[in-house]
User: What shape does this take?
Amino acid sequence: MRHPPLQKGWIDQTHHRVELGDFQLENGQTVHDAFLSYVVHGNLDSKKPVVLGLTAIASTHHRLDFLTGSGLAIDPSRYTLIVIDAIGNGLSISPSNSKRQHGMTFPKFSIRDMVHSQKKALDQLKINKLYAVIGASMGGMQALQWAVSYPSLMERIVAMTPMAKTSAWAQILNETSRKILMSHPRWQSNDPECWNAWIPLMQMINSRTPQLWDKQLPRFDDVKNEIQNKTNSWQMQEFSPFDWIYQSLAYDLHDVGQTTGMNLDTEFALKQIKAQTLVLAPPLDLYNPAYCARWASQHIADCRFIEIDSEWGHQSASAADNACSVFLNNCIGQFLKN
Assistant: This one.
């Protein structure tokens, strides 16, 4: 498995792998030689409540490291945390690492397929009860899907910056990002330059708010330097364009209302959630619009919505800003304890 270079704040944990064999997708196609990568914080053999952590788009199991550790929201002395890498992130089975279905020959998958594969992995690990499921961005979307697909399996859900149904705004951004990537003549060989225009769009325009960028980058030279810094940092991760294309397509087509038995009704699907739910989002999110998170929270029976008072936009649900990190650890920690 290709693991990106460790970044500040990441926890270096032993990697594990579950083999799923031939995994059938909800569209009827099959992913051959499927496997999922995961890490465990704590001990699965202990009697501590198990928390399932989920990954955001183009991210790995490190996405929730800012919530994990002694005295933090997910404290291994209190919980056992298992974080599973989603299909298509380059660590679990992906277009970039599949030997039999490489690149654009890989079958199209959905966020529900991610969730169903994770359920199969937990079955192999003999985990039949979860205390909580938690994720941010696409991880939050997976968390809501978990609660719809397996409503009796968990007690609590934490969804940061989620959407129950992907908005047209997010679809426009993702489609633009794919067109940008695929317009480069050497994108299929992962020429580092294929990311040059993608990075300002997907790591800057949609990730924070205009107000924050104005404060952080007062001069045009600052803007150019920040774009170059982010370009250098992202290229070091060696993320595959194939994987971005496939994960973003799954992102675009997501709707919990399309779950079997939900009658293509997003609101109806949310009303079937039994778990106590915490939804968090900032006032302005230029990727997953904040009104989507609020709307979802209004249709879940036992749900609390908390606004993240921040100008960090979509990145408010991350370690990017220390104040947000402290706030989220306090809110989520209390929710999990009560």
Observations:
- Residues 220-237 form the longest helix (18 residues).
- DSSP finds ten helices and eight strands in the chain.
- Residues 16-167+255-337 form a domain with the Rossmann fold fold (CATH 3.40.50.1820).
